[in-house]
Specification:
homodimer, 365 residues, alpha/beta, Aspartate Aminotransferase, domain 1, Aspartate Aminotransferase, domain 2, 4-stranded antiparallel beta sheet, globular, PyrdxlP-dep_de-COase (chains A, B), EC 4.1.1.25 (chains A, B), pyridoxal phosphate (chains A, B), PyrdxlP-dep_Trfase (chains A, B)
Chain lengths: 365, 365
C-alpha cells in the first residue's frame, strides 16, 4: 500500500482511466449480462450499506428479499416456494445439489447433467464430491431425456434440466425430465439462470417450472435477463423445509442459523432485482423479451442472407451460426462445437443488430 | 408478479419505506460491517455494470482487482502473492480449504480449527466433506497451539489460525502455528477476514502473515474494516500456482478457465475496495485503526467504571463484557459463552461510545 493517501481527484482520474479500458456494452454480443436498468441502479444506491447476512439489523431489506422470492415463486407457479437471493447461478446450483445430496445419503453419489450444462456443475461436483454423469443432446442441442433417464441409478441424487442453455439457448424437455424424476424418485433441479426470466414472458411459454410436479428446485438470475445489478441470483425450492439441512448455527448474529453459502450478503443488488420486476411488471417484461426475441429472429434472418447459417433455431434469445469471422471491435463468442454465438440481451438493440449485420455483410461480400 | 408495472415514484416511495425499517448504523454495535466510505460508494457507482466473471470484456476492472491483490499481498509481506476478490470470508475460507484438500489427497481428510473459528468453517467442512477437529482455547480465548498441533495427524489437510476472532477479537499465536505447519508439513490458512485490515495498522503489529514461513493462505475482507462495499473479500495465497487445482474450463467466455467459486462477479465492490485503500494509504488506515482501538479502550474503561468487567483485553477492536442488559434501541450481540459483545467499527465513534456508556450507566446505577 501507499504510505500516504491519494487525493480524491487524482484517484478518480485513475479509476476513470481504468473504466475506459473496459469495453462498452454496445459492442458486447457475447454476454448474458447487460447494463443494469436505471431503476436497478437507483435502488442499488439506496440500499448500498445493507447486509442480508445479519437480517435482524435490516428487516426492511429482508422484506424485499422475501418479496423477490414471492414474485419469482409466483412467476414459477408456486407462490409458496422457499428461496433466497444467491450470488448468482453458480451458488444456486451448488446449493441445490447440496440439498439433493443431503436428501439422499449414499456412499457414491452422482448427478445426471445435460452435456449443455454450465461449467458451474463441474465446480459443484468437484466441491461436493459428486460424480457428474453427462447426458447426451439431441440434434437440436436439447438433452435426450431417455438417455438421461438411463444414466439415473440408485446413487443418483439429482437430475438437472436447463432452461436457456448457455451455448445454444435451448430449453430441455423439462416435462419429460419431470416424469423421470417422479418415476425414479430423484431430485430434479432446473437451471433457469438465463431462461427463467425469458420463458414466462414468451408468447407461448412451455412448462418448465413448479407447474411440473417433478421439479424440486429452480435457479433464476435477476442479474442476467432481470436487468439487475451484480450479484443477484435466486434459488427457489418447492419444499421450503429442505433448506433446514443446510443450516449452520450462527452465534453473535441477530438470527440463530443460516442456510446460505455466503455469510455477509449485499442487500443492494436484491433491492435492485425486485425494483426492476416491480417497475416493469409482466407487461414490461413481456415487452423486453419480445424485443429480444424479435432481434434474435432478425439477426438470424440477416445472417442467413449473407451466408451464415444458423446452428439451430433457438428457444430463447441466443443465436448461433456456422461462420468464423466477426468484424473487428465486436465481441462475439464461440461454442465448444465452434459456432459463432451471439446473445441478444436488452442492450443489443435493433440498431446494434443492423450495424453488426452491415459489417458482417462487408466481410462476407 | 404484478400484471402492470409500478410508477417510479410509487416504487421508490415503497422502497424508501422499506429502507427506513432497517436500523441505522449509528446504534449498531454488533456488526463487523460499517457503512461504506464515501470514496467506496463513488467508485462502486462508477463500476456498477462491470462483471469480473468475464475478464476479457473488462480489462480495466481486472487491473483494479490485480491492484487490490498486489496492495493486500504487499501489506501481508508478499507482493507476489496470488489471489482474487471473493464474495467474502466464507468463500475465501471454502476456497483455501479446497486448495488444501487437493494438495493432500487422503481418504478421510480433516482440518484443525480453533474453537473460536467462524461458523463458515462448519459450512466449508460440510460442503467439502472434511472432518472438523476443534482445537481448544487458552484462558485468553486464543487457540492453544500445542493442543492444535496434537490434533494434526497424517490426514490433516489444513490447520487454521485466526487473526481477529469474531467473538473476542483475539489474535491466535500464528508464529507457533506456523512452526507446527512447517514441522508437520500441513497447509496453514489464516482467517484474517476482520483482523487483516486492523493488525498491520496497529502501533505494534504482531507477525501473522506471509512473513511467517508456514503461512500458506490468508483471507482478508475489504467489506469489513476496509470500509468497502459488500461483497468484497480477498483470498491471498503464497504460491499463486495452487489456484490451478481449482480451475474449470470456461468455454464461451473471454478466458479459458476460472478458479473462482462464483461465476459472474461484481467489479463495483472490487473497485470500491481498492479505492478506499488508495485514498487513505497506510497513514489514513493507521488513523482509522488508531481511532477504533482508542474507542475500544475507552469503552472498556467506561464499562468497568459502571461495573461491567471486560471478558478479556482484546487484540483488536472487539470488546466483550460480563453483563447482560443493554439500553433499549442499541444493538449489541452476545458470545456463545454469554458475554456482551461490541465491535468498535469506524461508525462507532467516540460520541457513540459516550452516548452508549451514559445509557448503560443509567441502567446499572
Amino acid at each position: 500500500m501507499r504510505e500516504h493517501g491519494c487525493p480524491e481527484e487524482d484517484l478518480f482520474s485513475f479509476l476513470s482511466s481504468k473504466r475506459r479500458e473496459d469495453l462498452g456494452y454496445h459492442k458486447i454480443l457475447s454476454s448474458m449480462c447487460t447494463p443494469p436498468h436505471p431503476i436497478a441502479a437507483r435502488a442499488h444506491a439506496l440500499f448500498l450499506e445493507t447486509n442480508l447476512g445479519d437480517p435482524g439489523l435490516f428487516p426492511g431489506t429482508v422484506a424485499l428479499e422475501e418479496l423477490l422470492v414471492e414474485r419469482l415463486g409466483t412467476l414459477m407457479h408456486h407462490p409458496e416456494a422457499g428461496g433466497y437471493a444467491t450470488s448468482g447461478g453458480t451458488e444456486s446450483n451448488i446449493q441445490a445439489l447440496r440439498i439433493a445430496k443431503k436428501l439422499k445419503p449414499v456412499s457414491s453419489p452422482n448427478i445426471v447433467v445435460p452435456a449443455s450444462g454450465h461449467f458451474s456443475f463441474q465446480k459443484a461436483c468437484d466441491i461436493l464430491g459428486l460424480e457428474m454423469r453427462v447426458a447426451p443432446l439431441d440434434a437440436n442441442f436439447r438433452v435426450d431425456a431417455e438417455a438421461a433417464g438411463d444414466l439415473v441409478d440408485k446413487n443418483t441424487v439429482a437430475l438437472v434440466g436447463i432452461v436457456g442453455t448457455t451455448e445454444y439457448g435451448m430449453i430441455d424437455p423439462i416435462a419429460a425430465l419431470s416424469d423421470i424424476a417422479l418415476d425414479r424418485d430423484v431430485f430434479l433441479h432446473i437451471d433457469a439462470a438465463f431462461g427463467g426470466l425469458v420463458v414466462p414472458f414468451l408468447d407461448h411459454p412451455v412448462p418448465f417450472d413448479f407447474e411440473l410436479p417433478g421439479v424440486a428446485s429452480i435457479s433464476v438470475d435477476p442479474h442476467k435477463m432481470g436487468m439487475g445489478t451484480i450479484p443477484a441470483g435466486c434459488l427457489l425450492v418447492r419444499d421450503p423445509s429442505c433448506f433446514a439441512s443446510l443450516n449452520v448455527e450462527t452465534p453473535y448474529l441477530t438470527v440463530k442459523r443460516e442456510c446460505t453459502l455466503t455469510g455477509t450478503r449485499p442487500g443492494a443488488s436484491v433491492a435492485a432485482a425486485v425494483a426492476v420486476l416491480e417497475y416493469l411488471g409482466m407487461d414490461g417484461m413481456r415487452a423486453v423479451v419480445a424485443g429480444c426475441m424479435e432481434n434474435t429472429r432478425r439477426l438470424i434472418e440477416g445472417m442467413e442472407t449473407i451466408g451464415c447459417q444458423r446452428a439451430v433455431s433457438p428457444d430463447v434469445n441466443v443465436a448461433t451460426f456456422s461462420c468464423d469471422r466477426a468484424p473487428p471491435g465486436w465481441r462475439v463468442s464461440r461454442t465448444r462445437a465452434g459456432h459463432m454465438r451471439i446473445v441478444c440481451m436488452p442492450h443489443v438493440t435493433r440498431d446494434v443488430i443492423e450495424a453488426f449485420l452491415k459489417e458482417m455483410g462487408e466481410i462476407y461480400a
